[in-house]
Amino acid sequence: MRANTEITRSTGRGTRRRTTPIVRTLPLPVLVSGTVLALAGAIGLWQILPGQITPTAGAGHGRGMSQVGAFDNARAGWSAEEILGHYYPGADLGQIGPTTIDVRLQAQDDATLDTFAAAGAQVAGRTIGPGDAAHLTPLPDGGANVVVTAGCDGDVLWQAATDDPFVYPIGAGAGRPADEHLTLCGGTAYRGALGVALDGESFRTVNQVDLDDYLAGVLPAEMQANWADQGAFEALRAQAIAARSYALAETRYDYARTCDTTDCQAYPGTVKEDSRSTEAVAATTGTVLLRDGQILRSEYSAAPDGGRPADIETFEVGPAPSELVESAPAPAVPATPASPDLTIEALAGESVIDAEYRRIGGANSAVGEPIGPEMLLPQRAGTYRLYTNGVIVATQTLGAQVVDFSTLLHLVPDVGDQLPATASGRPTLKMPQGGVPRIAAPGVPQGLQFPSEAEVRGEPVHGPVNPAAPGAPNGGPHGPAAVPSVPGVHDGE
């Protein structure tokens, strides 16, 4: 049975209204071992077999577009616009320009950000080399502490504090090649930039990504890409428009618009990207659903009976297209001047320890010549570097401090084999009464404070995690308990 539903399209030349024929969807009986399937509440985790739809999880809330109905209508020959006109009667189709979206990566909650790219990356205004890892910890002022290592677990190359708490790909713009994608140490890869934020005292990781790059990860996680091979490519197009609208109408957090779990929309990074669903995203670039000129939070589900038209007045709306901020490229890293004498340290930038070493006189100071690279303190509480006559240690709270070898041994017991021969003789650095390290040489500041072992080891334990690794569960339809229940696509209703 057909019905007539009007859908309008907002363009640069005004609003055009047209009449759209819609097919009324019928219930889709699907039996597996004699049991009627409950379809995915996490909207659209499917497997397609010839003549059959086999979803993998529960039924969803039934509001807005039914993915089962979209599949059925698409195979009957209806376009994405006709499908959307049926499920969101009274909505307009609008157009937006290129924009980015900030996504909270919930599996990274309360962890440091540890990331690298095969082609290198940008962080704290500097370029890091291929495979070098940036480890970011958020700071209360909105910035981040950055430690860069050779690989995820290698030697420390440099450390700095920065006002910009993001790591950027080496090249700007959307659709970057795979070797530029930022990969979590021990985890999956993401397009765009990765950064950190504080939510109260809790660490959060945020993916700042071009909207269509984001949808390239969302679509195949929400609707099976091989529907395109089953005559239902228009269902994928409809899903792309609905997902784009839903994401832009979200306002979940101060630091991110949406999240990556089925509490919002499933987004596992690049791991499920598929050329067929990416084509559907590209075919609908910039197209969104509007209600009264504002982007519609277009809920959808896997309702097994094909669903029914929604009352869009009950759905929330987000900004108007004109209120969106257009995409900005990654900050440019200043070009390195050509110089045959440029050192690795100069290319990488001066670390906190380097700056302190230079301040106290460098090789002419009481600590002497450097021995080896900077290393991490236990639990990533800071870094240290050995010198012939002492040690410089840097922590986030106290900055760089000069200590003697015995203090370092107390903090890092395994460092003994690395100590120079001078460490076994009379120490050049002396501990005055009260245990405060001090340089016993003229011209060097006295009374340098250094944290106790308890202070160092009292730092929170953070480290890399493995969200969305291939084959790993994505957290289920309810997500972490700390996330407030927000009416929408995945509320377990």
Class by alpha and beta content: alpha+beta
Query: Strand order of the main beta sheet, please?
Result: 12-11-16-19-20-9-21
Shape: elongated
The residue-averaged pLDDT reads 75
Q: Count of DSSP E strands?
A: 30
Strand coverage percent: 25-35%
- Tell me about the biggest sheet? 7 strands, mixed
How far apart lie the N and C ends? Answer: 30 Å
Helix content: 10-25%
Low-confidence stretches: 1-6, 10-58, 334-348, 424-493
Radius of gyration: 28 Å
Q: Counting H and I runs of at least 4 residues, what is the number of helices?
A: 9
Structural commentary:
This protein has 493 residues and is α+β, with helices and mostly antiparallel strands. It contains 9 helices and 30 strands. Strands 12-11-16-19-20-9-21 form a 7-stranded mixed β-sheet. A hairpin with a 5-residue loop joins strand 25 and strand 26.
